[in-house]
Amino acid sequence: MASNRLEKKDYIKTSLRAYFLQNGFNYGNYQGLGYANMLYPALRKMYRDDDDKLQEALKENIEFFNTNIHFVPFISSLHLVMLENDTPTKEVRNIKMALMGPLAGIGDSLAQFCLAPLFATIGASLAMDGLLMGPILFFLGMNIVLLLAKVLSGLWGYKLGTSIIATLSSKMEQISNVASMIGVTVISGLAVNFVKITTPIKYVAAMPDNQEKIVAIQDMIDAIAPRLLPVLFTGLIFYLIKVKKWTTYKLVMLTIVIGVVLSCLGIIA
Question: What pTM was estimated for this model as a whole?
């Protein structure tokens, strides 16, 4: 009888399926469909005797997800190890969501700002001398290094996950809570830095010496709580997603309408 336990080759296969992570990209859940597709063969093996659990596991993993495709195997391997050891779904999700942001930054920086310029510089210099080896070197160099990144990060996630489960199983809930807090911190930092909302409203205040002073509402807000307007708008979006179950498309349309109307009225800039 075939075993439901995953083997190292299953983790390597899942790591290689990272190439398909972007195939299902959309503005509803970004890489959510691609991530579920990555895990599908492994999940099918784990739940070969229970179709309901397989469907439930796939539904849980089509939610919003966005990270670098070269380091996503680290997350998927860690994810699968935790599932195999019956780690509660909430704890697995917290770890998954906390890791996607930092690994996206590391992976994007490595691929786009380190490897690509390095191999492009070498390849371009060879190509300018009329050598066909220039573009070949760029193509092979990039793809071989990034292939190794996928496989090695996947195996690292597997080894790390195994050691964590073996030694820290009693503290996984605490680790999960810490990971969740890190994730919230990262999202908060992104919100206040990338959500740009200010108000140009000003009014004239009369001073005791019969002089007038122009007071900017934005300066008053910043004195009380800097970045308050972006935080309030982010809170509104969170409420609409979490409580009202709005889709991304409705949120985009709402943002456009609010932005255009309030800008025309001179309320926000």
Answer: 0.71
